[in-house]
UniProtKB/TrEMBL annotation:
Pfam families: AstE_AspA_cat
Location of the Peptidase M14 domain: 31-308
PROSITE patterns in the cross-refs: PEPTIDASE_M14 (PS52035)
Top-rank taxon: Bacteria
Name of the molecule in the record: M14 family metallocarboxypeptidase
UniProt family annotation: Belongs to the peptidase M14 family.
Keywords in alphabetical order: Hydrolase, Metal-binding, Zinc
Source organism of this protein record: Marinobacter suaedae
Cofactor(s) required for function per UniProt: Zn(2+)
């Protein structure tokens, strides 16, 4: 795995970025892939079987992105809601395509049992540029709170607000990649004027539970379901995954709402964030997408079986 540079090429070490540094950072971002051809086209193909809606539009200069959600066609007001989100960090590819694979291959299996709502690509600008942040150098996945500075987060919260009290399960699909260590964490430290502290990248799949509302049996059900698809990340020599104590096999905990994370945006009883490792020589893109879809199905099956 490549190591991070000693200093980030933008800004002055120890000094948070101002407008000049943010502008320089933005000038270095280039489009690598197409949201329209890779994501919107796939959503369009689902429209004969599911309801598709535009829940907002992002405008960054001349770039305009419709934000799209996919809903169960047979929506029943007396059923609980399952919320599936992907691409909150746009560069995390299997979050987007795993969400689409789930709804395409398995979404209809839950008709009449739950209402499924999928937002497969929350951050399309980041998807196209294979980046963690939005165009304002803001991390959407730290922005799910009142007066959010990220329109990606604010738009999704507006979509979910009328359903917030009915969400039984929210599963947010992510990846941990080698570039977290070589680019995104160094950029974060530089942006905030803090020292970069090198860490390790877990080799395998893991989950982030909510430390304020832990559901250990639920998390382990997902780990067991995903293991036949891709390997589970072992703890490092400190007993940690990505700097956090491993509380159970393949599981760490964060205070989801306190940190403004997407998975904490509702009061759902069952909440989790998946973390797939696409840079492993033991995992293919197809395995990563399938692992995400399998995790969603396992999460729904568990939530329905243990619904109170």
């Amino acid at each position: 795995m490549n190591t991070a540079p000693a200093t980030y090429p933008i800004g002055t070490p120890g000094t948070p970025w101002g407008e000049e540094e943010r502008a320089e950072w933005l000038s270095r971002q280039t489009r690598h892939r197409s949201y329209e051809s890779e994501v919107l086209s796939a959503i369009g193909r689902l429209s004969p079987r599911f309801d598709v809606q535009e829940y907002g539009r992002l405008e960054y200069g001349s770039d305009v992105y419709p934000l799209m959600a996919i809903r169960s066609r047979e929506w029943h007001e007396d059923l609980p809601v399952v919320l599936v989100t992907g691409g909150v960090h746009g560069y995390e590819t299997s979050g987007v395509h795993g969400a689409l694979q789930f709804i395409d291959q398995h979404g209809a299996d839950y008709a009449g049992r739950v209402n499924v709502l999928v937002a497969p690509c929350v951050s399309p600008w980041g998807y196209e540029r294979i980046h963690r942040w939005n165009a304002n150098a803001i991390d959407p996945n730290r922005s799910f709170h009142d007066d959010s500075p990220a329109e990606e987060a604010a738009a999704l919260m507006r979509l979910v607000a009328p359903l917030r009290d009915r969400v039984l399960l929210h599963i947010d699909l992510h990846e941990t990649t080698d570039t977290d260590e070589t680019e995104f964490r160094p950029a974060l430290a530089a942006r905030d004027g803090k020292p970069f502290e090198p860490g390790g990248i877990p080799d395998g799949f893991y989950l982030v539970d909510d430390s304020e509302n832990p559901q250990p049996e639920f998390q382990q059900a997902l780990i067991e379901a995903v293991e036949p698809v891709t390997h589970i990340a072992p703890a490092d020599d400190k007993g940690e995954l990505f700097g956090s104590p491993m509380v159970a096999r393949g599981v760490i905990q964060y205070p989801l709402q306190k940190l403004g994370l997407c998975a904490g945006m509702t009061d759902a009883r069952y909440r989790t964030t998946t973390e797939v490792y696409p840079d492993s020589p033991r995992a293919t893109p197809e395995q990563c997408n399938t692992a995400q879809a399998v995790a969603v199905c396992a999460a729904i099956d568990y939530a329905l079986a243990h619904r109170q």
